[in-house]
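Researcher: Next sequence.
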Amino acid sequence: MRQDLSLASDANLVIAISRWDEAALAEVYRRHAGAVFGLARRVLFNAQVAEEVVQEIFLRLWSAPERFDPGRGSLRSFLLTQTHGRAVDLLRSDSARRLREEREARQTAEAGYDIDHEIWDLTVAQQIRDVLSGLPGGEREAIELAYFQGHTYREVAAMLAEPEGTVKGRIRSGLKRMHGALVAAGVVMPGGDE
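Model: Next structure:
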């Protein structure tokens, strides 16, 4: 019987599936599951979810084999169309969920941000600008390039045409001065390393 199924056409296998022939479903799975999985994985970029899609597609075939019409195309095309549709649905659902979560997080963050926090943040920012502007030029430049413009120590050294060790030293001493000034201004707590 197994050899008979391996020689049967896809259309005949679907007819057998409509008669609840599990061996026919197994043969269809053997023939087409690899292609179904490959497409699902390419669309979803997730092997575990792709495996779930494969299971769902073959369960759909088992539950409603009459949906396959051999006059409209091959069984493989039918299964791949089903797979693509389901995978895209999952992507859209996941994307919509993420957008909803991001929107809710933004709303929560905005709702929790009051005028007192905004005033405090502006005060701290101004204190930092004032302290930074009071640093010696070499320290200020190095800190601005490293911390406010995002350059590495090596890049800062190249930009200032200074040895990297010198730049690191200037940054360290500048940060110590800033920390002391910000503690004195009551912006940060004393103690700890900067």
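Model: The chain has two domains: 2-109, 116-184. The CA atoms of residues 25 and 59 lie 9 Å apart.
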